[in-house]
Amino acid sequence: MKLVFNDPTFSFQLLRAIGSSYYGGADIGECLATAYRIKEGDFESWYNEWYQTASRVRTFGEKCLAEHHNISASQAFLRASNYYRTAEFFLHDKPNDPRIIDSWQNSVDCFIKSSEHFTHSFEVVEIPYEGKTLPGYFYKPNLLDKSNNKNALYTSATDSYPNYTNSLKLRPTIVIHTGFDGTQEELYSQCVLAALQRGYNCLTFEGPGQGAVIRKQNIPFRYDWEKVVSPVIDFLLKREEVDNDRLGLIGISLGGYLAARAVAFERRISACILNDGVFNVYDSFVRNMPKFLTDIIENNIESKAEEVNSVIKEAVTQNTGARWAISHGMWVFGASSPFDLFRKARDYTLKDVINEIKCNTLVMEAEEDHSFPLQPQQVYSHLTCPKDYMLFTKDEGAEDHCHVGALSLANQRMFDWLDKTLSHNLKN
Question: Whole-model pTM above 0.85?
Fold first, then answer.
C-alpha cells in the first residue's frame, strides 16, 4: 500500500503510524501533514519532522491538563507517544545517538501521562528475570458484574465463564509482546485496547532486544524465548485476577517466531497467536542475497567475513529498508558486523521445535508481507497442534506486514478466534 512516499519503507512506517488512529494512537491529519514535510528517504528529515509533531502535540496535552481537560490531555499524550516512537525509528545507524534515548523516553513519559486518565485499570509492573527485571504493563477491563446490573458491559470473552456472574476477579488473560523493533507503548493502540473492550486482562512486556531492555539494560535478543516467557507466566499466575486455565500469548512481527518458540516449551499457555507467522529469521535476512555470500555465512568461513560485510555495507546505501534492518539488527542482536548478525540469526528457527507446540495456535498472514513473505504458510504446514490460518488481503486493505493499515479488522478476527478458543478451556 503506497502512502505519500515512493520509498516503500517510509510508506510502510507512515501507514504504521496512521494505523493506530482507529484506537486513538494517531490523528490522520497530523500524520499526513508531518509526512508531506519529510524529504524522501532522508532519515534525519524523518526524525526532525516527527519529533516536531510529537512535541507540538505533547505541548497541547500539557495545556489541556493544566486547564483540567483531562480526556483531551490523555488523548494528546497518547498520540504524542506514538509520534515520538515514530521519530526515533531510523536513528539506529548509531546506537549511541542520544536522540534514541531522548525520543524513546519522551514516548514512554507521554504514554504514562495518558494512562493517568484511562477508564480501565492500568499498572506499571516489573517482572523478575534472571536477576534483573523486565518492564511490563498490566491492564484490566472496566467491566460491571452482570448479576447486579442488567445493563452491564460484558462480552463473549466473559459471557461463557460460569462463575463470572459471581466474581469479576478471574478473567481470561492475554500476554502480548512485540517483535524486532516495536515498543510496548505502541501495543496499546495496536491490540491491547481491543482486548480490553472484549473483557480480557492484558499483560504487555518487553524482553531482551526490545524497548527499554535494549535501550536501558543493553540486553540483546535471545533465540530461546521460552526462557523469557516462562518467568512472565510465573509472575502472571501470582495475580488473583487471572484465570490460570485461560491464558493466551500474542507475538507480533518477529514476535511470531518468538511466541511460537515459547509455546513449544511453555505448557501453561492455552492459545497462541502468531501475527504474523515466522519460521526462520535467517531466511528473511538473506532471501535477496547472492548464493556466494550465503555459502560463506552458512559454512561459517571467518576468513571471508569481511567480504560479506563490505558487500552488505555497499548494498544498503541504495536501499533504506535494508540499511535500517541491518543497522537495527546489529544493535538488537548484539552483533558486531553484518556477518555476525546473519550468523546469530541462524539460531532463530522453528525447524527442530515446532512439533513440540501443543496449544491451539492461530497463524496470521499478510498477502503482501515484505518482512517474512510466505513464512506463515511454512509455519502452518509444519504445526501438528490444533491450528487455524487467516489470510489478510489487499482487497481488505490488510495486506501489509502485521495488517497495520487494518487494525480493526485484524483485531476483530483475532479476538473472535480467542473468544471461541479460550471458551473451550473453561473449568467444569
Answer: yes
